[in-house]
Write a structure and sequence with these properties.
By secondary structure, the protein is of the alpha+beta class. It has helices at about 15-25, 65-75, 90-95, 140-150, 155, 165-175, 195-210, 225-235, 240-250, 255-265, 270-280, 285-295, 300-320, 350-360; strands at about 45, 50, 50-55, 55-60, 80-85, 100, 130-135, 180-185, 215-220, 325-330, 365, 380-385. The radius of gyration is 20 Å and the shape is globular.
C-alpha cells in the first residue's frame, strides 16, 4: 500500500496467488512501487518517491500498480500480479504499452492481500479488489490466468469458487470467424477522449470491422448516474477504512488525500452542495456531482445505492445476452501518460475505467499502436459478462 508505517513490515506467509505462481516455478524478484494508500492514478509515495515511466522519464507510470508496470515495460520482469479496485491494473497497463487483465471479482483468492485497515485484510463487502496479471503480451496473460484459476487454489483457500480456466471456451472465441463486439454509443456521457485516445478507440472499431467482425451499438440508460453511484459507494465503503488507519498510525498524507479528508469529513454538507451547484456552471459534470455527494452516507442510503447498482448490472448482462455479444469495446484512459507537472489535472476519477469495476465484469487493457510522431502508449478496454 506504499504507506510509511508499513515500510519495514515483512509478512510471514505468501498470498495464495503468489503461492500458486511459486508452485509453477515462478521466481518472485520484487514488489513494485504504488500510489500511497492506492488512492491515486500516479505512483508516488513517501517511501520510494515517484515511479518514472521507462518510455519517457518525465511521465508517470500510472497507478496504483505503476511500479509493477514500469518494471515490465523496462524489461525487468515478464509478468506482475496486481490488484484492481478502480483501475489499478488497467491504467498502468495503458500508460506503459502493456496488456493487463481484471478478472471477475471474487474469482481468485484474496487471502494474503494486505489491505491497509485495522483488519489487515480486504474488508470491503460491496466492492472487492481482484487479482490480475500485467504483461507484455496476451499469451503471458493467458498462462498466468491458467495458474491463478487452477483447482489447486482450493487447496489453500476453500472459499475460492470452482472456476477453472475454460480452455474450450477460449479456443472457441479465438477461432470464431465473426465476433459480435458491442460499443456503448453514449459513452461520451462519462468521458471526453483526447486526440490520441480517441484515435485508438476509433481505430480499434475499424480493425474489428476489417477483420470481418460486427460492431453492435447499444445504449446504457442513465450511464453517468450509474457510474457516479458506484463512485459514491466506493468513497463511503473503501477509502475511509484506509484513510482512518493512515491517520491513526501517523502516516504522512499527500495533498490529494488531505483534500479528500477535509471535503469528506470536515466541510459542512450545505457548503458542498453550494460549491457543487456553482461548479456545475463552469467545470466538468463529475466535479459538481462529487462535491454534492462527498459525505458519509447512512446505512439506508448505502443500501439503496447498492440495490440500484445490482439492478443496473443485471440490465448490462441482459443487453449482452440478448444481443449475443462476445465482448464490449470501451475506451481506455482518456489521454497518453501525463507528465509529472500535469498530475493535478488528472485527479478526477476516470469514469470509463471505474465503469467496469462498478459492473463487476472481467475486462482487459489492450495497447493500441499509435501512428505519426507521438508514440506514447494508449489503449482500449475489452470487457465481457461475469466469469467469462
Amino acid at each position: 500500500m506504499s504507506v510509511a508505517s508499513r515500510a519495514d513490515k515483512v509478512v510471514q506467509q505468501d498470498a495464495v496467488s503468489v503461492r500458486l505462481m511459486r508452485d509453477q516455478g515462478a521466481i518472485i524478484i520484487a514488489k513494485g512501487n504504488c500510489s500511497e494508500g492506492c488512492m491515486t492514478i500516479h505512483s508516488n509515495s513517501h517511501i520510494w518517491g515517484e515511479a518514472k515511466n521507462p518510455l519517457d522519464n518525465s511521465r508517470t507510470t500510472g497507478g496504483s500498480s505503476g511500479g509493477d508496470a514500469g518494471m515490465i515495460a523496462g524489461g525487468c520482469s515478464p509478468l506482475a500480479l496486481a490488484t484492481d479496485f478502480a483501475g489499478s491494473i488497467r491504467i498502468p497497463s495503458f500508460f506503459n504499452g502493456l496488456v493487463g487483465f481484471l478478472p471477475s471479482p471474487e474469482r481468485h483468492s484474496t487471502q494474503g492481500i494486505s489491505c491497509y485497515t485495522k483488519y489487515d485484510s480486504v474488508h470491503t463487502k460491496i466492492f472487492r479488489p481482484c487479482i490480475g496479471p500485467i504483461s507484455r503480451c496476451v499469451d503471458d496473460i493467458v498462462e498466468a490466468m491458467k495458474v491463478l484459476d487452477s483447482s489447486k487454489a482450493r487447496k489453500y483457500d476453500k472459499l475460492v469458487p470452482d472456476q477453472p480456466f475454460d480452455q474450450e471456451l477460449y479456443d472457441h472465441i479465438l477461432n470464431k470467424k465473426s465476433l459480435r463486439i458491442g460499443v456503448i454509443k453514449n459513452i461520451s456521457d462519462i468521458v471526453t477522449l483526447e486526440k490520441e485516445s480517441l484515435n485508438a478507440y476509433e481505430e480499434s472499431k475499424e480493425a474489428f470491422i476489417k477483420g470481418g467482425h460486427e460492431i453492435v451499438e447499444f445504449e446504457m440508460v442513465d450511464l453517468f448516474k450509474f457510474v457516479m453511484n458506484g463512485v459514491h459507494i466506493l468513497n463511503n465503503e473503501a477509502f475511509p477504512l484506509i484513510l482512518d488507519e493512515m491517520m491513526d498510525k501517523g502516516d504522512p498524507l499527500n495533498v490529494n488525500i488531505q483534500v479528500f479528508l477535509f471535503m469528506f469529513n470536515v466541510l459542512p454538507k450545505f457548503i458542498k452542495k453550494v460549491l457543487g451547484t456553482l461548479a456545475g456552471l463552469f467545470l466538468p459534470r463529475v466535479v459538481s456531482e462529487l462535491l454534492k455527494n462527498l459525505h458519509p452516507a447512512n446505512t439506508g442510503t448505502l443500501s439503496a445505492m447498492t440495490k440500484y447498482r445490482f439492478t443496473k448490472i443485471q440490465e448490462f448482462t441482459d443487453i449482452l445476452t440478448s444481443k449475443d455479444l462476445d465482448g464490449v469495446l470501451i475506451p481506455g484512459y482518456h489521454s497518453v501518460p501525463f507528465e509529472f507537472s500535469e498530475k493535478a489535472n488528472h485527479d478526477l476519477p476516470p469514469l470509463q475505467i471505474y465503469l467496469m469495476n462498478v459492473l463487476h465484469c472481467p475486462v482487459g487493457a489492450v495497447p493500441v499502436p499509435q501512428r505519426g510522431e507521438n508514440k506514447l502508449p494508449v489503449g482500449v478496454q475489452i470487457a465481457s459478462t461475469q466469469w467469462r
